Structures are given as C-alpha cells and as structure tokens.
Amino acid sequence: MAMASCISKGKDYNYKILMEELVGKMISLPVKLWLTAIEVGREDPRRPIHALKVGVSLTLVSFLYLLEPLFVTVGQDAMWAVITVVVVLEFTAGATLCKGLNRGFGTLCAASLAFFIEIMSQNSGRVFHASFIGISVFLVGFLATYVRFVPYIKKNYDYGVVIFLLTFNLITVSSFRVHNVLHLTRDRLSTIAIGCGICLFMSLFILPNWSGEDLHNSTVQKLELLARSIEACVNKYFQDEDKEVIAREDKSSKDQIYMGYRAVLDSKSSDEALALFASWEPRHSRHCYSFPWQQYVKLGAVLRRFGCTAVALHGCLESEIKTPLSVRSLFRDPCSRVASEVCKVLDELARSIRSRRHCSPNMLSDHLHEALQDLNSAIKSQPRLFLGSKNARRTANALVDWRSDKNTSSTVALSSAKSDISSLLEGRGKRAPDTPKGLSERKSLRPTLSKIAITSLEFSEALPFAAFASLLVEMVARLELVIEEVEELSRAANFKFSQEDEAVIEMEYCEEKKPSATAKFFQSNVVSQTAE
Amino acid sequence: MAMASCISKGKDYNYKILMEELVGKMISLPVKLWLTAIEVGREDPRRPIHALKVGVSLTLVSFLYLLEPLFVTVGQDAMWAVITVVVVLEFTAGATLCKGLNRGFGTLCAASLAFFIEIMSQNSGRVFHASFIGISVFLVGFLATYVRFVPYIKKNYDYGVVIFLLTFNLITVSSFRVHNVLHLTRDRLSTIAIGCGICLFMSLFILPNWSGEDLHNSTVQKLELLARSIEACVNKYFQDEDKEVIAREDKSSKDQIYMGYRAVLDSKSSDEALALFASWEPRHSRHCYSFPWQQYVKLGAVLRRFGCTAVALHGCLESEIKTPLSVRSLFRDPCSRVASEVCKVLDELARSIRSRRHCSPNMLSDHLHEALQDLNSAIKSQPRLFLGSKNARRTANALVDWRSDKNTSSTVALSSAKSDISSLLEGRGKRAPDTPKGLSERKSLRPTLSKIAITSLEFSEALPFAAFASLLVEMVARLELVIEEVEELSRAANFKFSQEDEAVIEMEYCEEKKPSATAKFFQSNVVSQTAE
Q1: Does residue B48 sit at the A interface (CB-CB below 8 Å)?
Q2: Which of A80, A141, A180, B352 fits as disulfide partner to B58, beta carbons 3.0 to 4.6 Å?
C-alpha cells in the first residue's frame, strides 16, 4: 500500500511537472510571439506602417457595404473592390502599380473579349450558346496558360494574364445566366476601379515605399557588405599569431565574411523583382525619361562576379592551405593596404551612389595603384624569398621578354605602370561619355596594369601566398569593372557632379591640346626601353 | 506640273514602301508568334499539356453554370469554383497542392473567425454591428499583413494568409447585408472544395509534373553543366597556339563556360521554390517518411560555392594575366588530366544522382589523386622552372618543417598522401553513417591532402600559372565537399547501392579487424620519417 501511494505520488509528481511545463509554454508562447513581432518591426519600421495602411484600406472599402448610400450605388459588386484591395495592395508603390495596372488592363481586355463573344452568340439557341461558351472557355484557358510560359510575358505581365483569364471566365460563364452582360461588366469594372483607386492612393500618397529606393539602398549596402567581407577576410589571413584572440573573434569574423558575400551572391532574384517594380514607378523622371533601373541589375551582376573573388579569397582561409606564418607576416602590411584600398574604393563607390553623385575614379585608382606598388616593393625588398638576378637571368629564356635586366626592369616596369595608369586615367577624364573608342582603349589598357602587378611578384617559395596575392590583384582588376559599371550607372542616371569634379573636367578640357607631363615621361621611357 | 506629278509619284512610292513594310510586318508577326510558341513548347513539352489541362479544368468548372441540374444545386456561388481553378492550378503537383491546401485551410480559418464575430455581434444594434465589423476588419487586416512579414510565414504560408484575409473580409462584410451567414459560408466552402478537387485531380492524376523530379533533374543538370564549364575553361587556357581555331571557337566556348557556372550561381531561388513545393508532394514516401528535399537545397549551396571556383578559374582566362605559352604548354597534360578527372567525378556524381544509387567515392578519389600526383611529378620533372635543392635548403628555415630533405621528402610526401587518402577512404567506408567523430576526422584529413599538393608546386617564375594551378587544387578540395554532400543526400534519400558497392562494403566489414596493407605502409613510413 505504501508502494501504491508512492506510485500515485510519483504520478502526481509527473503530472505536476507536465502541467508546469505546459503552463510555462503557455506563458512563453505569447512572449515569444511578441518578441518575434517586435523583431520583424525593428528590422524594417515601414512594415507596421504598411500593415496599418492595409487595415485602413480594407476598412475604407468595407464602407461600400456598411454605409447605406454607397451600398445602394454599387450593390453586391462591392465584393470586387474588397478582392482588389486584398490582392493588389503591395509593400512598395511599384509593386502596387504593377499589379494594379496589370489587373486593370487584364480586366478590360477580358471584358471586351467576353462582350464580343456574348454578341457573337446572342441570337443562337440555348444548346449552341452553351457549347459555344464551353469551347471559348477551353480555348482561351489553353491559350492564356500557354502564353504565360513565354519568358517575356512571364517576367512582365504574368499577373495580368491570370486576371484576364479569371475575369473572362467569370463574365462569359455568368453571361449564360445573367442577360444584361454590359450592365454586369460595367458594375464590376467600376468596383474594381474603386479598389484600385484606394490601393494606388494608399501606396503612392500615404508614406509611400519605393522599390527604386530599395534597389538603390540594397546596391549601396551590397558594396559596403563586400568591403567589410574583404576586410575581415584579409585581417583573418594575417592574424594567426594570437590564437586566443582568434578563438574569440573567429566566429564573428567568419560570419561577417560569409554574410557579406552571401548577401551579394544571393541578390539576383530580389534585384530583378525590385528593378521590375521600380520601372513602373513614376519617380526620378525629372532628369531622364526612363530611369535606368536595369543598370542597377547589371551592376548587381558585376558585383556577384566580384563577390566570387571574395569567395575564392575566403577559400584561401578555409581550406587551410596556408603559407608559413613567417612569410605571411612579412607581407601583412602591403597586402592589408591593398585590401584596405579596395575596401576604401568600395566604400567610396557606395557613398557616391548613396548621395547620387559622380564618383572620382582618378583619386580611387591612384591610391589603389600606390598600394599595389607598395606590395610590389615589399616583395622586392625580401631577397631571401626570391630568385637572385643571376637565377632570374638563367630562367629568362623560358619567359616572355617583358624586361631585359633585373635592375632596370623594376624602374621601367614601375614607371610604365605609372604612366599606363596615368594614360588610363587621362583617357577616362578626356573621352566623351559614350565614345566606343574610349571604351575599347580602356579595355585594352586594364590587363596591362594587372599583368605588371602580377609579374613583379617573384616569389620562389611562397607559392600558396602567391595564390592569395594573385587573387588580391585579380580583385583589383575586377574592381575596375565595378568602377566602370558604377560610372555607367551615374552617367545613365544623370548623377550630379561634385564641384571638384567639375573643376577637374574643366582643367582637362583646357589641357587637352598639349601633351601632359606623364605622357612625355611615358614616351621617354618607351624610347629608353626600346634603345636597350 | 511635271514636278507636281513627280512629287505625287514620289509620295505614292513612299506610301507603297510603307504599305509593303506594314504588310510584311503583318505577315511576319504571326510567323514570329508561331515560332515563339513552337520554341516554348519544344523547350519543355509538358507546357502545352499543362495548358490543355487548364483548358479542360476550366471547361469542367464552367459546367456548374452551363448545366441546369448543377446550377440549381450550387447557384451563384459557382463563381468561387472558377476563381479557385484559375488561381490554384499550377504547373507542378506540389505547387498546386501547396496552393490548394493553403487556400482550403485559409478559407476554413477565415470562415470560423468570421462566424465567431457574427455570433458576437448578432443581437446588437445596427450602428454597433457596423462599427464592430469595421474595427474587426481593420484589426484582422493589420495583423494578417504584419504576420506576412515573419520570414517563416512568408516562406511557407504566404498565400494561405492572403486567402484568409480575403475570405474573412468577404464573409464579414457581406454578413452585414446577408442574414444567413452560415448558409453563405457553407455554399462558398463547397464550391471552393469543388474547384480544389478538380485542380488536385488534374494535377495529381492526369500526367502529373512533380516539383521533386524537377529539382532532382536540375541538380543533375547543374553537375553536368559545371563539368562542361570547367572542361571548356581548362581547354581554352591551354589552347592559345592556334589563333585561328580560337577565333572560331572562342565565342561558343566562352558561352559554354559562362552558361555553365551562371546556371549554378543563379539557381538559389528556383531551388528553394522547388524544394518547398516538393515537400508538399506525396511521392517517394515509400522509403522514408519525409523525403530530404532540403538536402538538395544544401547540395545546391555547396555547388554554388564550387561554382565560384569555376568563376575564379574563368577569371584567369578573362583577365589575360597569363603565364608565358612555353610554361603553360609544359603543364598542359597534367593540368588537363586533373581537370578531366574533376569533370569525370562531377559526371559520375550526376549519373549516380540521376539513377538514384550510391556513388562510389573510393574509385573517384583514387583517380583524382593519381592526376594530382601526375601534376606534382610533371612540376618536379622541370628543374629549369624550380629552385635547386641547394636554394631550397637555404630558404627552408623560413618555411614549415613538413619535409627534412628534398629527395626523401618527395617519396614520403607522396606515400603519406597516398596513405592519407587510403585512410580517408577507409574511414569513410567503415564509419557508421552518422557518427560525428568520423566526420570530424575527415574534416581534419582533407586539408592535409590539399596541403601536400600545393606545397609540391615549387615554381619560381611561373607564378601566374601557380594561381591557376592552386585554383585547380582548391577545386579538388571543394569537390570533396560536393562528394560529401552527395553522399549525405544518397544516405538521407535511401538511394540504392550498386552490386559492386555492396561487395566492397562486405569485404571491408570482414577486413575491419586486421590492419590493411596501406595502413601498414603508412605506419612504416611514419616510423622511418620520425627516425630521420
């Protein structure tokens, strides 16, 4: 009996625990929900505002039913206004416009076609009428669904076709029972117009969210994320000494690296959707007729490819194929400087896009080149790690004849690199914005820059580091493409010039006739090089 | 007058040209449309079939209006069946199920809530009733819209919430005018059920398209595309000799490279959508309760990161930072062999996934290792390009102490690499599928393999080539991750074993007790190495 009471006590105890757990969960659930709700709102404060807008719109549209005078006017068809508001009112103005106009146009087309079919089969017998409707429903259903597979339609007008199909079916089919189709169509159209009107008013005039702004901001953010990612990546590569510090910082820096390039790599579909919606928005047309949203998509594609270099750089860390610490620490400063210059350029590009002004690529490229040059000299200043000039001469036959002698070569290579860059930048400053000649010149000049940087890295033993360094240089080459695309964007979108830029352009215009000092320097170098 | 007639003749001529152009366009437009239609159908023959299915479903649902006995039963509410068919019937069975069940569940919830509110405000005055409805419409609209921003809801139940909001509003608002809400709700639910039934029947039983199949096939295709991309990339890198051939082949090979990795990099959103829809499909549950569709998404993520290496490899071609031809041609065969082995592994993985059987990683890794070893020996056999052993010894202090002597080190490194791989594969064969210990062992072993391959590439001058080669080795290391993920998939999805595999597993089970020949070899090597 003692045992039985013990068991029952145990049971009671179990029940108590279970009950406590259940109560605990019941209490924690609302807390959890509340925290999630706050988190969602904090991430983007426009969300609760949008939710409020939807609530208000629905209440407004429900007045069509609730208020006697309105109900008398629109009657049962008020339902269509409710459906329209629920389905059309989207987060951004562009998306609402896109859906609203698609819906309106789809409905109009469908109503016309349905009306045409109704007229065609008006004076026929009951059975013929029914089979005629059946056949036309089948045919239109087949064709409309098939048309939705065409990529162009799918991308731009998918929703419109769905609404066309929906409205056509509803009108055609109900025309068999209702005799005044014109009346039916007119009522339905007017209520849909009321719904669309409320949606457009709410999304265009009451605290509007613009898809274009989102696309603009996300592009800026992507540039900044990439900068942070590369920064963290290079820092981590050269930071192996303090094992304890790493253990603490490892996770956060890894997250930062990963988050950075992942956000860029995964941005394709959201970019395209935003650009599509933005193209419906009536904004930014002050400067140009159609704002070049597709240019943002293109920039996104270039950034994705740039991001791939960041992934490869991260691969150098992750795969643990590392250069000995001693070698790495020798090059920490110059490498970090190249990386920080890359980051600076990315940040500067982000800033220029954010403030919608032209970036100044001259300044950017100059610093970048100086950093590359530093890396170059750092490598040259560590003779222990490279071949002597004797050895170099022995293997020179197997190589291209970029340089004839080790000692002269370094100065020639550097000065020609310098003048290459100068001419590159001059060409950029001078050329008219859209001359294809200027573009092709730059295309042929860019590789030269990278080539010089790469061939001057003459390690013998620090090979894994060579891969890291060449990825860094590759990154600089890719960065040029990013700069080019940002320039293209700022030209296409008529970004404003800063005052300094305007001064520079004016100066360059004045000096265009006489050859510049750097060009002279370049020419003399070429002469001395060929003389040798 | 002659001039006037001349002018009028000229005008006539212009009109004639214009008319001809117009007629030409009028004739070419249908031809163009027809060609587009044929192209769309040829790309995926399931598309016209799906369009036919939609046409048939719509015709079926229109019978609710057209046939007298059916119309008498369901009446005006037949409209809801039409709306349901248009909106719910999707291309794949999973998408239809997802939408249909979301719609059904959303409607049920909304109807219950609306009914509850109706009961609450039943016996109140007219004005109170109206304001009660208005407030509840506002609150539910606000909350439902806000809930849609929660990522989990957005991903899985977005459509359900929209339908909930729609139905709730329609029922609540119309309850103000219609007094028998229960009747109204029941009729509406029954017609929606008819619509959903037709959709589910059409998509599940008449020539169904499975999202799961699509995901499966697209994964296979991605592996194959990557293989072709890498193949084309490496071929192009070593193909500079015949300039004429390049000019002809350049565009097509570039397209192939680009198409390959681009398809992989851009696959995220479609993969996730397919996996989501596939998770609703009632298929493949013969083997396991829930088919691991998320594993395909994970594999896709690993493939995207693998694809980034392909992009970086392509970067070596595109940036024109190239090694001199003489150096490149020396290593064409071993590099091509590594690349072709990588491609073979990718193709083998694709084949094994396609036929839903376990892949045999042993065989794959062995060949891959042989190819890496070949590259290694090729590099060692070109002393002209590397430091002599004297030089190596001089710089050895700055390097890690992986090897003590040049001559012995190569054999030790190779044999230990060999035994590393053997033990890696043994460990893989032996270990239970889910032991975390086995996983961690492999994680620590993989870098060793790559480390050895990298450090044996001791060039002095062929640095740009070093970057190319190290990317190739990096690719092999990443490939291991892909193989791992495919194995994980085949385990999770209960893929069948081929007969050879079963024999191998049995043998390994028998030999598990006694140490293998390679293990003995490895042990003796370690002993000799430490003795030195």
Answers
A1: yes
A2: A141
